[in-house]
Each structure stands twice: as C-alpha cells, then as structure tokens.
Task: structure prediction
Amino acid sequence: MGAINGAQAATGVTATFTSSTSKAALTLTTADGRDISVLDFTNTGATKTVNFSGVVLTGGAATDSSIKSGVISLASTKGAITLANANLDVFSTATQQSAFSAVANLSLTTDTGAQAAIAVVDAALGQISSSRGNLGAIQNRFESTISNLMNVSENISAAQSRIVDADFAAETASLTKAQILQQAGLAMLSQANQVPQAALTLLQG
Result:
C-alpha cells in the first residue's frame, strides 16, 4: 500500500485497506475518475492470484493485466445504444442495450438523479438542435429553388416583352423619319411641277 500511495502524484491512485481489521484487501480510488490499471501482474515465486474488481489476475511464469474505467458516459440522440462484444473488464456483460430515459422517471433528490436528469435534458436539446438543423437545410433548398424559378420567370417575361411589346422610342423615330421623307418628296414634286409652268410662261411672253 505504501508503494501505491508513494506514487500517487504520478498515478493519481490512492490505496486504502478495504477492512481495517483483516487488511486482506485494498481499495484503489482516484479523485478525478481516471482509469485504474494493473499491468503485467507477475510473481517469481509460487503462483498467486489477485482479484481485481471481479477479474482474477494470475501471477507466476505469465503476466496478466486488467483495466477498470473510472467513468464511462454514452449518449445518443439517434436512438438506443447497443454494445456487442464489450470488454468485460469495463462492462458487466458483453452485450448491452440502453433504454430511453425520461425526466419524469428520475428523482432529483440525489446527486446521481440530478446528473441523470441533466444528461436527459442535454440529449433532448441535442435532438431538437439536430432536427432544427435538418429543417433549416430543407428550408434553404426550398428558398434556393424558389429563387431560381423566379429568375427563370423574370427572364421569360423579359423575352416575351421584347418579342410582343413595341419599342415606342424606336417606332416614334421611324415614324418621324418616314414623315420627313414623305414631306421632302412632296416638296420636290411640287418644285418639279413648277419648272414646266415657268418655261411655258417665258415662251408665251
């Protein structure tokens, strides 16, 4: 026990006797919830075994190891969590499946219940955020499609206007030009008719 506590600054693990009377077992704890591992347990003498939180480690000619995880928290907003071939050093059974929790079924009178309620609320908020993100993406696609259709409609209307509607400025200029040419032509014909009359007048005089 002294060797374990002497290395507490490096390992973060504290050892105490499980029973102060028999002193046959040690309890290993960590303040920050980190993993506690017993690696390469061996003994050069007679074969001995150590029960490390339900896992039997055998010493002697071979080495044995085990790790106990301090805190494991699994959360999902997509559905139940299923564990297959789980490590028995960490989980109690090799196959487990989570169950949905509701705040109404939790008790807030204990620290554990309050923490569980907070986890349930966080998961619910995460699911709502995920749903809002999906709806926002769909809305953006709709808005982009509507904008594109409006641009197409405006382009079609503009093209139809250029084909059907008259350009008043161009038509007015064309009409004015035609009227000027017509008046000029009439003036020239009038002058051309006056020339023979003037010649006849001279001959008669």
Summary: The longest strand covers residues 36-41. DSSP finds four helices and eight strands in the chain. The beta strands are 13-17, 26-30, 36-41, 49-52, 55-58, 64-68, 82-83, 96-97. Helices lie at 2-6, 8-11, 111-164, 168-204.
